[in-house]
TrEMBL record:
Domain Phospholipid/glycerol acyltransferase: from-to ranges: 68-183
Keywords: Acyltransferase, Lipid biosynthesis, Lipid metabolism, Phospholipid biosynthesis, Phospholipid metabolism, Transferase
Keyword Zinc attached: no
The protein's Enzyme Commission number: 2.3.1.51
PANTHER family recorded: 1-ACYL-SN-GLYCEROL-3-PHOSPHATE ACYLTRANSFERASE
Identification of the protein by name: 1-acyl-sn-glycerol-3-phosphate acyltransferase
NCBIfam families: AGP_acyltrn
Catalytic activity: a 1-acyl-sn-glycero-3-phosphate + an acyl-CoA = a 1,2-diacyl-sn-glycero-3-phosphate + CoA
Membrane-spanning intervals of the chain: none
Note on domains (UniProt): The HXXXXD motif is essential for acyltransferase activity and may constitute the binding site for the phosphate moiety of the glycerol-3-phosphate.
Annotated Pfam families: Acyltransferase (PF01553)
Amino acid sequence: MLFLIRMPLLGLHFVLVGILGVLIGLCRPFNPDNSRVFARLYGWPATWLMRLQVQAEVGPLFDQPPGCVIVANHQSNHDLFVLGHVVPPRTVCIGKKSLKWIPLFGQLFWLGGNVLVDRSNAYQARRAMQTTTRTLQEQDTSIWVFPEGTRNAGDRLLAFKKGAFHMAIEAGVPIVPVCVSRYARRLNLNGWRKQKVIIRSLAPISTTGMTHQDVPALAEQCREQMQHCIDLMEKELQASRAVADLS
């Protein structure tokens, strides 16, 4: 029953934010802070509707000045709402070119200054990466990337694609890992009980002095740190649920 109420409300919310976001985007097109504004508009009401309690522990992310590569794990389409709570100022995202065909959201994504990549066209993908590298170097803007390259709600992170790490080394900027607890497989849109989601950012990883030969080791270092953090957050949540069940 709750599912039949929630889904239309989430759909209405998605449309209304899309309309408002496009209007904001038309007033200040491609402003690098648009994405943060849009993320908050999507995130706060949606997670309330889904009964998700987001616990954000992202001091290192917000302490880092704009001009870094942010890497995060990607679990479901609901990440749009969950991660909307923690997008820092002057941050844009890399997304598939096909996103532009989603009514309202695609136009909002484009007006937010985000980067659309055609993954089927290697030349265009390289051009897009070169553009984002210049953005990191010259515009004090951070780039948000999901290095797994696809949604993954499993226990183990997939191997990271290397593009984000090449970009960070070429621009000479740090990498900030952002970890989200495994909320997707516990999400129950037909239930009323609140589910806690922890978002935790790790200390920036410097790329100073690195070359492209260091990319495989850097990507694996980042993946291992994030895997350890996610496993630790899951243990914390399990302990919290056990205490709640006993009380």
